[in-house]
Amino acid sequence: MAKQYKTLYPVKYYRDYVAHNIRPDGREFDHYRPVILNSDSISNLEGSAIAKIGKTTVICGIKAEFCQPKPDKPNEGFLIPNLDLPPLCSPKFKSGPPSDQAQAATKVIDDIITNSECIDLTDLCIHKEKLAWCLYTDLICLDHDGAIIDASLLALFTALKNVRLPSVEYDAALDNKIVNLEQWHHLKLHCTPVSSTFAIFEDVIFMDPTAEEESLCQGIITVVTKNDKICSILKPGGATIAEPNLLDCVKMSTARSKLLTKLMETASEESKDEPMYMPPKLEVLSA
Question: What's the CATH code, domain 34-271?
């Protein structure tokens, strides 16, 4: 009976739970789902990782190739993210060209990378105007159950922490590259942005919403932090949010980002066969 009631009256179903200060999955409003990270999941790539937040699962693979720098930026390489939302991850996505949501999410991820200044693209330049590294970061969602930006950033930056590039010598006169496979270096990250997504459901805020909660809410907010500071706040339309509630979102996001950053660092140091786990409950989240 409860399943039929939920199907017929989904909003009323959620209101009944909210009236008792709890969500249908048993979480309180300010609690997030379990997080699992696995680093170096794919051995034939320069960097890879799998991130899982609840059921939402994203795998990231990074492939490095040689390229020529742009004429207007002769001493910079490239970092090109791309998020794929295939029909495999959710029935609301169809096969064919990238969906609008996939393109919008890819643009958000690219903006976060640029605005956070997490990577100095000059580190990817091998020889000015002639040769540079291009890092293709492909993100594939295997299961979409909300907070796709959060899971994508976790997978992306865990993979970037493990990128190793060989030493390259370039002879501009002969246009000859010499790759030394005995000398490798890690990609330098200046910071690791972490995001937390919130859903506005009438007069309450859900932290780390599921796909169902996102579909029923009146607005979505994604708070991105780096080094305990706000990097960006994304709110694509929807209902307005009061300033005290927004400050609560920032506070919760900052507290969670410390744990997620530590989780990424630990996952990068551990064996790829031992995924790292963070329990769902978070202390000091109440406003």
Answer: 3.30.230.70
